[in-house]
């Protein structure tokens, strides 16, 4: 286990309300001990380490870990109800907003479809694929538990076909499971968006932006969530650890993309980066993936939904450059793009949403009409040109970016993508033109 000086467990790591502390400052807690309960919609919170509670604030519980940490943990209570075990373990969606899993699975879809998201949608991140490679049998058992809970008739595991070894491993693991099949996805973003998975599955259904998967009589669940479910049911283990991809550029222009399994929830970003003291100077730290991650700092704690920590290359300095923002419902928000533009020192002269974006005026967020399938962006690029933009900063999906590159060079408009700085730091090809292998 990684030795750390402090663990910070946020009381709210999920959709719904925060957990209410069940312990007091000065109390010694054991690894796996229940330390927070929600009032209403929410998730149980457990100590990820053994140690002394040093502070309880409105937002977090802080623990000073013992020098020696046990491998064992306080198990969740025994129950004959697997859905109750999921609740008691504090499981939330590990790959998204963190919706409490016991609530998500609490409404049966009798005769419906269970879809498993193994797409590893965001570039750079690789922890879900790594978990499949080391624990595929447990994941398959977790799938069967969930299938029984929601009363689905069949299961499809959605995985990108580029992960050849993982596909072969899954094919072997599901042999004899006539109710489970694989759905091989293209290597494009955002194939892991749940409506895209439903569209690409044998359901062949494109849901409305306002629809939940239940509209297709389906449930979609992330690979790591399924693994944590199996842990809760078989091992009585609460959610006290998280799988994380740590990535960035090392000194000497070498890159690191490393998967760390089962790090304690509440460990700081800085503690994870300290594992790589040769990390080069960076432009920003991202918690999450290059597309939808948010800027973070070394003191921020890992939560039940954290998938990645990425140190990007330094931002280019383009003081005075007039830039137009082209936002995509599948990528960085306009606020996030403005944050990046400020770091580049540019003047933002206008913003346009992708033609596929349906914008919620109250929240400023958007959903894509057809995730990953682009209607063309020429009109939007021309609009930004008229607004005075000399350069574009875009956050578009693979297909949309491809269409931007069909018009921007003709207008002599250089293009930067919001993922460029994370991709360059990790040796990944930057997004511009769609290459043939993206559709393989």
TrEMBL record:
The answer to whether UniProt assigns keyword Ion transport to this entry is no
The NADH-ubiquinone oxidoreductase 51kDa subunit FMN-binding domain extends over 86-230
Q: Which residues form the RnfC Barrel sandwich hybrid domain?
A: 5-62
The keyword Iron-sulfur is assigned to this record? yes
Q: Which GO terms describe its cellular component?
A: membrane
**Which SUPFAM superfamilies is this protein grouped with?**
Nqo1 FMN-binding domain-like (SSF142019)
**Keywords from the UniProt entry:** 4Fe-4S, Electron transport, Iron, Iron-sulfur, Metal-binding, Repeat, Transport
One Pfam family it belongs to: Complex1_51K
Instruction: Tell me the InterPro entries matching this sequence.
Output: Ion_transpt_RnfC/RsxC, Nuo51_FMN-bd, Nuo51_FMN-bd_sf, PR_assoc_PrdC, RnfC_N
Q: Name one GO molecular function term.
A: electron transfer activity
Q: What is this protein called?
A: Respiratory-chain NADH dehydrogenase 51 Kd subunit
Q: Which organism is it from?
A: Loigolactobacillus bifermentans DSM 20003
